[in-house]
Design goal:
single chain, alpha/beta, eight-stranded mixed beta sheet, 15 helices, 20 strands
Length: 514
């Protein structure tokens, strides 16, 4: 993990490999943003014109590298775009700063230390820049070549891939200011857990399967004071968890249900988080077509998000009780796999006709939601890479929110926007429920093709305990990024929805959700 420090040192005196400054789009060209005054002075007040001559505009996502003048003790200046200059008396938004810091950190991969001189008007800005830098510096290098193989290839032992930026120093942030320190401590705790989730999502499925995922969750819980209970395959059979068992029965790696528990002595509310944890999804007997299997190690992103959120709540000491449920299974085709047409008896007692074994996430979630409902939490939120239909509807960067409570859905949408995660409220049209009627069982796991993401939400709603507020986050789009990195978002696992879940826990602790 990249180290992070605060410093009141001047930009002209700090020694580092580079300094990151902000540049915005002004009416007459690029404008140097606040925080970079000393750097601009070193260029005799001509930094903006130098950047313009190099083609910089100040647009978001832009990074311009230029040699530092003799007045600075760093060899390189990185100017990152902040977008349009804010209106008078307005500040740069937290997400703008977060993304710009991420661009700076990514640009400086391989460097040992960099100073960030971005606009900081208070603790919120400090936290945003810290988050962006620490998330942007992420790299998954666990499976890169060993030192021996790397040397034979002529590189430095990292398999040809640069290591993350080693240290970030935030200029203009005061190390002894309580609010500044608290902002950085929160950013570090949160980003460490987001990056843990990213690691899990990126881990190959031959190493990450239900048993090993459960072991990782157990170790994380032990480290941070979270109670962990693992229900293994034998206990799942005894308990009648037909959804988890039906999905997992085609694999040699048996399913698991992991319960995480963080409690606070003064907590007045309890929220339950349920995560889909399909460690690999082949589609089962309803095998996925070529081109759709290669990234299916990411189908446990919901469970990774729940683990990260519960551990974050514990690390932050939030005054709320949080339980997490990781519904873990591997969906494989074999002689023992569930067939289309089979009927499963779920943990709730309901029977489900399986029309498509590739609609497996809703089956494991249904068991976990029923089990979570038994404890009567104040709210349940499930998180899942559930449907391709949601990606068709909202694209690759936005997750959908469904709920049995309109006010709760609205609150979650507001929270997601507040923390910088793109989301959109989606309906649960009652007329789509009829499409899941089965002549054989209580319900089928498939309904109408059109509106498939909403159908999946309606299926899950059937398993929520009576009177419990519930929401469903379909993160199929943003959970795994296959394109070029942008902002603080890397290629591969992203950690989508974790910041939303943690902010939900914070708001619940503060009594802001009723």
């Amino acid at each position: 993990m990249t180290a992070l420090t605060l410093s009141t040192a001047g930009a002209a005196t700090l020694r580092a490999d580079a300094i990151v400054v902000g540049v915005a789009k002004g009416a007459k060209g690029p404008t140097v943003a606040p925080g970079a005054e000393a750097v601009d002075k070193a260029y005799d007040g001509k930094l903006a014109s130098v950047l313009e001559s190099l083609g910089a505009t100040g647009a978001e996502g832009e990074a311009t590298k230029l040699p530092a003048p003799s007045g600075l003790k760093v060899p390189i200046v990185i100017a990152v775009g902040l977008g349009t200059v804010p209106e008078k008396d307005e500040a740069y938004g937290a997400e703008t700063l977060r993304r710009a810091a991420g661009v700076g950190a990514r640009t400086l991969s391989g460097a040992k230390k960099a100073a960030f001189a971005l606009p900081l008007e208070g603790a919120e800005d400090i936290e945003a820049v810290a988050e962006g830098a620490l998330l942007g510096a992420y790299a998954f290098t666990v499976y890169r070549g060993t030192e021996k193989s790397a040397k034979s290839a002529g590189d430095k032992g990292d398999g040809g891939v640069k290591q993350p930026l080693g240290e970030v120093t935030l200029l203009g942030a005061k190390p002894r200011d309580k609010a500044h320190k608290a902002a950085v401590e929160r950013a570090i705790s949160l980003t460490e857990e987001i990056n843990r989730a990213r690691d899990l999502i990126n881990t190959p499925p031959n190493d990450l399967y239900p048993e090993t995922f459960a072991a990782i969750a157990t170790a994380a819980g032990k480290e941070h004071g979270v109670k962990v209970q693992v229900t293994d395959e034998k206990a799942l059979v005894k308990g009648g968890y037909g959804g988890l068992l039906g999905v997992g029965q085609g694999s040699e790696h048996g399913p698991r249900l992991v319960r995480l528990e963080y409690t606070h002595a003064k907590a007045k509310k309890t929220i339950a988080l349920v995560g889909k944890g399909i460690t690999y999804d082949s589609g089962g007997i309803s095998l996925k077509p070529p081109g759709h299997n290669e990234t299916m190690k990411c189908d446990m992103s919901g469970a990774a998000a729940v683990l990260a959120a519960v551990v974050s709540a514990a690390r932050l000491g939030l005054q709320v009780n949080v339980t997490g449920w990781l519904a873990l299974a591997e969906n494989m085709p074999s002689g023992t796999a569930t067939r289309p047409g089979d009927v499963l008896r779920m943990y709730s007692g309901k029977t489900v006709e399986v029309l498509n074994t590739d609609a497996e996430g809703r089956l494991v979630l249904a068991d976990a939601i029923t089990r979570a409902s038994e404890e009567k939490p104040d709210a349940i939120v499930d998180v899942a890479t559930l449907t391709g239909a949601m990606v068709v509807a909202l694209g690759n960067r936005t997750f959908g929110i469904m709920s049995n409570d309109e006010a709760f859905r609205t609150s979650l949408h507001e929270i997601a926007e507040e923390v910088g995660e793109a989301s959109w409220p989606m309906p649960l049209p009652t007329e789509l429920r009829k499409g899941m009627d089965s002549p054989t069982a209580d319900i089928a796991n498939m309904g109408e093709r059109m509106g498939g993401g909403l159908v999946a939400g309606l299926f899950l709603k059937e398993f929520v305990g009576e009177g419990i507020t519930w929401a469903h986050l379909d993160i199929a789009g943003p959970a795994f990024h296959e394109g070029a990195p942008y902002g603080y978002t890397p290629k591969g696992g992203t950690g989508s929805s974790i910041r939303t879940l943690v902010r939900l826990a914070e708001r619940t602790a503060a009594g802001d959700l009723g």
